[in-house]
User: What shape does this take?
Amino acid sequence: MADVPTRSPLAPRRTVHAGDGVAWLESASLPADHAIVTSLPDASELPALGPEGWRSWFVEAAERACRAVADEAVAIFYQTDVKRDGRWVDKAFLVQLAAERAGSGLLWHKIVCRVAPGTTTFGRPAYAHLLCVSRGLRLLPGQSSPDVLPVPGAMTWPRAMPLEACAAAARFLLAHTRCRAVVDPFCGLGSMLAVANAHGLDAIGVELSRQRAERARALALPAA
Assistant: This one.
């Protein structure tokens, strides 16, 4: 079983493991107060799989993430579509397919504007998806929040979750769940981990690149 630290009563903790995120999820038993907030790698980051192999890998990895959290906890995914051979690969659909296989339901689906509305983009759309799923949690109408994030916020590197999307996820966890620790099994340079800590949440990351894992341990948010 992977080492899963408990929440500190004093200051938020950050633990980053250098390793494979899917393998870590297979070995981890997440406590009830842990949520997953992550962005799964695109096919361009896993070229050896090929397009169809990547699609299968993506759905299986997202399903594992959904199953890893407790019934009343949540898994949140930030994903940007990509165009391949003149067709869009809809990652929101793939996340929901994985969630359905895991017995999870969609609590909300937000659009994160990557550029100003009305801008024409090529290869990737002007928006990204932010989806939250859970097996047991339900939200009342009065717990709704804006469906569109018009400003994504800064990005610590080109593949990062933008900081405002990270903050929206952290605020939701604090307001509507009992989750007080964030797990990102594909953490990159640790944007979500740093934002979680800034909101008083513990953070656990897994990153295949040892160099990026080391940087994720030390990442500090830019000054406001």
Residues 9 and 25 are 25 Å apart (CA to CA). Strands lie at 14-18, 34-38, 75-79, 82-84, 87-89, 105-113, 127-134, 148-149, 181-184, 202-207. Confidence is low (pLDDT under 50) at residues 1-8. The longest strand covers residues 105-113.
